[in-house]
Specification:
This protein has 340 residues and is an alpha/beta fold. The protein has 2 domains: 6-156, Spo0b-associated Gtp-binding Protein, Chain: A (Distorted Sandwich); 162-331, P-loop containing nucleotide triphosphate hydrolases (Rossmann fold, 3-Layer(aba) Sandwich). The chain is 16% helix and 24% strand. It has 6 helices and 14 strands. The strands form 3 sheets. It has a 6-stranded mixed β-sheet with strand order 10-11-9-12-13-14, with helices on both faces. Strands 3-1-8-5-6 form a 5-stranded mixed β-sheet. It has a 3-stranded mixed β-sheet with strand order 4-2-7, with no helix packed on it. The chain is rod-shaped.
Length: 340
């Protein structure tokens, strides 16, 4: 199934049913009073988070959603039937925003969480509500109110504890395969990852965390270079960013320190809050890089890096276990120990 993480829909709640103006017409009941019932309320539209869903693809093609209208009131004090509510099931992590104002209407972060998107209209009043001592035969009634209508933008932001950052071919997909059961595509060309993927890293029987891999960023992503910024939203809920750096010297002689700084600059262009998240450097492909240790030290000095860093080889798992344990200690609030 194709991964879809954005959609735009219309929601139209049901109209309330009209009230009724009727009078009793029964045998042996002369001059029967008013008996018009109220109209039923219109159906509302709700959003429901469902952990069994992982994409918004259903809403890419079904864009207009209407709830049932309320039934009209009738004579003999009969009230109209209320319209059925409409429930839209979406993946956990979906945000609903008003398309005209950009305001957040709902943010569903837990399985089973519900949110009201559009309220159904109230039913109209029948003429039995208007009788009085001086108005014995009222003919007044009210119409049902229209239901709310909205244009909504849907965004899916995956729920993960840790997010992976890096230039294309830095080895993010290889790393997530090494530490979890996820199997994203791996190949020796850029942009093999076209959609976000999630993996559960299990440290012990009762200890684990979720890691998210997104397509690689390149300089100029804010202007649409590469795949742009479209997947960075999936890192907004993470608590820690792992910045993977390729230790293999590039064929074009590009400066890896410049690449690290360019990626951070792209983060700041997208969201300053995302750029302020805790970020660790992870130097990958140590098995392929000559004098890997010396290269790492030169980069650390150039960056004046004082935060945690790790050197790993994702293809054969060297250093991955130590990194996973350090991440788990960080997420659980325990001491990280020394960087390595």
């Amino acid at each position: 199934m194709k991964f879809i993480d954005e959609a735009r829909i219309e929601v139209h709640a049901g109209k309330g049913g009209d009230g009724s103006a009727a009078f009793r017409r029964e045998k042996f009941v002369p001059r029967g009073g008013p008996s018009g019932g109220d109209g039923g309320r219109g159906g509302s539209i709700w959003a429901l988070a469902d952990r069994n869903l992982n994409t918004l693809i259903d809403y890419r093609f079904a864009r207009i959603h209407r709830a049932q209208a309320g039934d009209i009131g009738r004579g003999a004090d009969k009230y109209g039937h209320g319209g059925e509510d409409l429930v839209l099931r979406v993946p956990v992590g979906t945000i609903f925003k008003d398309a005209s104002t950009g305001d957040v209407v709902a943010d569903l972060t837990e399985d089973g969480q519900r949110a009201l998107l559009a309220r159904g209209g109230k039913g109209g009043l029948g003429n039995l509500h208007f009788k009085s001592s001086i108005n014995r035969a009222p003919r007044q009634f009210t119409r049902g109110e229209p239901g709310e209508s909205r244009y909504l933008n849907l965004e899916l932001r995956v729920l993960a504890d840790v997010g992976l950052l890096g230039l294309p071919n830095a080895g993010k997909s290889t790393f997530i395969r090494a530490v979890s059961a996820a199997r994203p595509k791996v190949a020796d060309y850029p942009f093999t990852t076209l959609n976000p993927s999630l993996g559960v890293v299990r440290i012990a029987h009762d200890a684990s965390f979720v890691i998210a891999d997104i397509p690689g960023l390149i300089e100029g992503a804010a202007e649409g270079a590469g795949l742009g910024h479209q997947f960075l939203r999936h890192l907004s809920r993470t608590r820690l960013l792992l910045h993977l750096v390729d230790l293999v010297p590039p064929e074009d002689g590009a400066d890896p320190v410049k690449g690290i700084r360019a990626l951070v600059a792209e983060l700041k262009k997208y969201d300053a809050g995302l750029a302020r998240k805790p970020r660790w450097l992870v130097f990958n492909k140590a098995d392929l890089a000559p004098d890997a240790g010396a290269r790492v030290q030169r980069m650390l000095r150039a960056l004046r890096w004082k935060k945690p860093w790790f050197m790993i080889s994702a293809i054969n798992g060297d250093g991955c276990r130590e990194l996973s344990n350090a991440v788990h200690r960080f997420l659980s609030g325990k001491a990280q120990g020394k960087s390595r």
